[in-house]
Amino acid sequence: MRILDTLIQKLAGIRLTILLCILLAFVSLIGTLIPQNLTATQYANSYGPVAVKIIMSLGLHDIYHTLGFVSLLCLLAINLLTCSVKRFPNVWRALQREHPVPADRGFKSWKNRETFVLSAAGEDLEGRLEEVVSRAFGRGAQSRVVEPQERVFCVERRRHARYGPYVAHLGILTILLGGVVGIFFGFKGRLTLPEGQEASEVWLPKTGESIPLGFRIRCDRFVVLFYPGGSPKEYRSEVSLLDEEGAQVVESEIRVNHPLTYRGITFYQSSYGEIYETTMRVRHRESGQETVVTTELNRPFVLPGDPQVRAMAVAFQENMRVPAEMVRRTTFPAGGLGPAVRLVTLEDKGFGRPFWVLKDFPERAQTREGPYDFRLEGYRSISYTGLQVTRDPGTPLVWAGCILLVVGFLMALLLDHEILWVSSKRQGPGRVTVTLAGRGIRHPAVYQSRFERQKARLRKELAPWFRDG
Amino acid sequence: MKESTLIGLSIFIYLASWVSYLVHAAFGKKKGPGIVGDVLVVSGLLAQTSAIGVRWWESYRLGIGHAPLSNLYESMIFFSWTIALIYLLVARRLETRLLGVFVMPLVCLSVASTSLMNQQIQPLVPALQSNWLTAHVVTCFLGYAAFAVAFCFSLLYLLKSRRTAGAGGYFQRSLPGAELLDEFSYRMIAVGFPLMSLGIITGAAWANSAWGSYWTWDPKETWSLIVWLIYAAYLHARIARGWKGRRAAILSLVGFAATMFCYLGVNLLLSGLHSYATG
């Protein structure tokens, strides 16, 4: 049991908090020095073969998701939780309790103290002192008669400032919880949508799987606007959301900083570009059969003559460049070869060798061996929009946590729990001394200027009794 | 007046105020140079404020109106402006003006460094067209500036508390008490920390609406977290474990070094999403 007690003691300790802060800062720092989430080849190119082994085996390429880093975060959460659970009840009880009247009733040992000597005041003042104190410092003063000639009031202000650290810690825990909820119940996907096309599922890069949206999204138009100087002004996707039956339910636009949310799924403008649609004429040499195919890249199509054989366009260039040395050896024009599509055949055996088909040099197709004759007849570029598709049910928690965090900080760091004592003592006939003493609990060193203001307030309220003095 | 003229003028005035504070430090018995220094800081701040105003107005005249907080040049101008402002607010509460000896070179240096940067008023690229821009930049830089002033207090503290043979030099003797310097440094961090947190939070909210993720471990985000963790460690060490004086001062220096790396180092040395602020 003693070991357990010590363990809890350590887990709840501020020493651990400080250690974890420094450790987390250090590990985070490493993650910013080594670019994250590159491939092993990319690391090998910039750091060499030995370093890449170290990086990959220690997980330095994805440091924020390593077991070590996540453990540090968990430990921090446990530390905050145990620390708060352990200390909060004490603070709560301490703040509910009435402060005992200090033995040193002259408050001689208090740094911030002021005594007002009211030479002409009498019972009149003593009777109204409570009123005076509450006018000066607000209600809530606890009056206590100590001796027949002596009365003491205790005023506590901004007591709730003491709860600040707990509110802030609760905020951090809520943010972490929001992060965890996002990881387990949310997703981050990508969607590439050419103009005029629609999608009903979204691809998740992390797992490689596609998940259904539950509705369909269609890109009606993608627009880029530029400033006169040439820098981009606006990226805008005009989209329609369709239900399962194909009826349009929403028509809207997605811009950077202006995402579209529907049924808990949010679409963000993330990238854009052009894809090519090529039109090809394919002839089966043996049978003389011909077809015209219009297709995008990476979409297999059936070839004439033999339905078992398919082909696929894997790349397209509007103007294919050739090396200068090749220009010298051949009759190719130096300015480029014009539009070119790279094709590959797919047979039972697997992929064939990829080859280029040039639009402006159709005669080259005759010289290629093999059963087919390919001609590139035309092409068209289509704009596509790249959308980030996210569902994160954890975000409300994160924002709530942020609010708690800031409120907690303001309470803990900028306000201070203040204790003021006001004591009055009859010194002789008609002569009363009133002593004000004050203290800031958390920030005593900067309390003085505040005390000056409290002093001025009390002096103002006591003014009627200064009159004859 | 043109913006560049006003900025040049403010550099000159800030430099003059630094010289006044130095004179004040050297011939401390006389109050005059110190007061002159204060007046100069106020006028420098006025010149700089008008420069910011002129630039703001100019951007609207060009039809691309936005608050001048969108690139490295504009942020650096704003950073130095907040340091000077915070200095004036804090200096009122100090009996000595020696803080100016440390703060003013920092202000001069940051304003002067802007002459190396691209000063053209640029239109906002789509990612920057957000209501979060002003809130994010203002809170971040108020936080940075508070840390900068805390850093100066910590430097003064280290100078004051340095053990010297005899009673120490004149400068050292004329500094306010070590305890007060230490406390002021702490107060500035206590002000800067919530501001910086607000800066991170507004940044996260912005990233969430622009890129669909409130946190992506981008180098800028990560460095802001590093700064935040260092000051969090400082506050815990101080409030709960009674770290004061030398150890606290050193932690404050480390914190400010990290802050400066977060502001400048990340943009200039590391690549990431936050690349607007390089040009």
Strand content of chain A: 35-45%
Give the class of chain B from helix and strand content and strand pairing: mainly alpha
Main sheet of chain B? none
Number of domains of chain B: 2
The counted number of beta strands of chain B is: 0
What's the SSE pattern of chain A? HHHHHEHEEHEEEEEEEEEEHEEEHEHEEH
How far do the termini of chain B sit from each other?
A: 25 Å
Quaternary state reads: heterodimer
Main interface: chain pair and counts:
A-B, 52 and 51 residues
How is this structure best described in words?
The complex is a heterodimer of chains A (469) and B (279). Chain A has four domains: 2-93; 109-158 and 416-466, START domain (Alpha-D-Glucose-1,6-Bisphosphate, Chain A, domain 4); 183-272 and 385-403, no CATH class; 276-384, no CATH class. Helices cover 35% and strands 35% of the residues of chain A. Chain A has eleven helices and 19 strands. Chain A has helices at 2-11, 14-33, 40-47, 49-58, 67-96, 123-137, 164-185, 324-329, 363-367, 395-414, 448-466, and strands spanning 112-118, 142-147, 150-157, 187-194, 198-203, 210-226, 232-242, 248-255, 260-262, 265-284, 290-296, 301-302, 310-317, 340-347, 350-351, 355-358, 372-391, 418-428, 431-440. A five-stranded antiparallel beta sheet of chain A has the order 1-19-18-3-2, covered by helices on one side. In chain A, strands 4, 9, 10, 11 and 17 form a five-stranded antiparallel beta sheet that branches. In chain A, strands 12, 13, 14, 15 and 16 form a five-stranded antiparallel beta sheet that branches. In chain A, β2 (142-147) and β3 (150-157) form a beta hairpin. In chain A, α6 runs antiparallel to α11. Chain B has helices spanning 3-26, 32-61, 72-91, 99-113, 132-161, 170-174, 178-211, 219-241, 245-269. The model of chain B has no long low-confidence stretch (mean pLDDT 87). Chain B is mainly alpha-helical. The interface between A and B is large, with 52 and 51 residues.
